[in-house]
Design brief:
There is one protein chain. The protein folds into two domains: 2-83 and 244-267, Immunoglobulin-like (Sandwich), CATH 2.60.40; 96-241, C8orf32 fold, CATH 3.10.620.30. The protein is α+β, with helices and mostly antiparallel strands and 277 residues long. A hairpin with a 6-residue loop joins strand 4 and strand 5 (60-66). The strands form four sheets. It has a four-stranded antiparallel sheet, with no helix packed on it. Helix content is 16%, strand content 39%.
């Protein structure tokens, strides 16, 4: 097991034409394998942030009420991330009746992941592959080979089925289609937003997670950044659950600056088996 230490920072600027509130999803998620050593979330508003966590612990939201004018938000954190050097065996799919209750909802179609419309397509393309990691890897290979990474061809309303038709998209679309094809094959999958080390240009990155055996595993068909440098921010059924900002009133986005720096990496040994995220 190797522990990587990263520093992340985000600066967001919004213009409010009248007083309103903003709910942000920019804080690094906390888990056993992703530990927030220190963090700070500040703004130029007089009000304080209020933290809200979803019951599953996959996302932390921070809300703030702000007056009219420019609102500047700055988030900074130092994070330790454990990464398995290798897996002793390829994780495999479990029977649906053996899934934990909290995982079952990630089998169903959602707003941007219409898995019920791609069941026949997925079966023909990936049904011959061995269940488990080999099948998910096959889905990633298909995405990388058949979907062009192209900025501007899709928008916030583009779904997985649209992406199949267009054969192009950005990380959001790759993640949606990866989730959709996995669910169409009976594999629980969820959409995740992450900070990504060495992503160019720096931005929030979209990947997908798959439940295999007894854990969630990261997959990214874009291959734009190394997976050991993914720091999860939030997870959900699709992008609708992980929006960077949700707001009321008349709020205009002005700018965003993101930085991810790798501080160190140290080989460590644990008594437990490898973790996926």
């Amino acid at each position: 097991m190797t522990t990587h230490v990263f520093k992340v920072s985000t600066k967001l600027l919004y213009d409010l034409s009248q007083p309103g509130w903003i709910l942000l999803n920019v804080a690094v998620n906390k888990s056993a394998a992703q530990r927030v050593v220190r963090e700070r979330l500040t703004s130029n508003a007089a009000a304080q942030f209020r933290e809200h966590s979803v019951p599953e612990g996959t996302t932390r939201f921070h809300g703030i009420a702000a007056p009219a004018g420019l609102l500047e938000v700055v988030y900074a954190a130092e994070v330790q991330r454990d990464v398995a050097d290798r897996l002793d065996e390829n994780p495999v799919e479990k029977s649906l009746i053996d899934l934990p209750p909290e995982v079952i909802p990630y089998l169903y179609p959602s707003r941007y992941c219409e898995s019920d419309k791609l069941v026949r397509f997925a079966a023909k393309e990936f049904g011959h592959l061995l269940p488990g990691h080999e099948r998910v890897a096959g889905i990633c290979n298909w995405l990388h080979a058949n979907i062009d990474y192209q900025v501007g061809i899709t928008d916030a309303h583009t779904s997985a089925v649209d992406c199949v038709t267009l054969r192009a998209g950005v990380c959001r679309d790759f993640a949606h289609l990866g989730v959709t094809l996995c669910r169409a094959m009976g594999i629980p999958a969820r959409y995740s937003s992450v900070y990504a080390y060495q992503l160019i240009p720096p931005d929030f990155h979209a990947i997908f997670e798959v439940w295999l055996g007894s854990d969630w595993y990261y997959y990214d068909a874009t291959r734009l950044a190394p997976q050991h440098g993914f720091l999860r921010v939030g997870s959900g059924h699709d992008a609708a659950d992980t929006s960077v900002a949700t707001m009321s009133g008349s709020v205009n986005f002005v700018s965003m600056e993101i930085a991810v720096e790798k501080v160190s990496a140290e080989r460590v040994h644990y008594a437990v088996g490898p973790v996926s995220f």
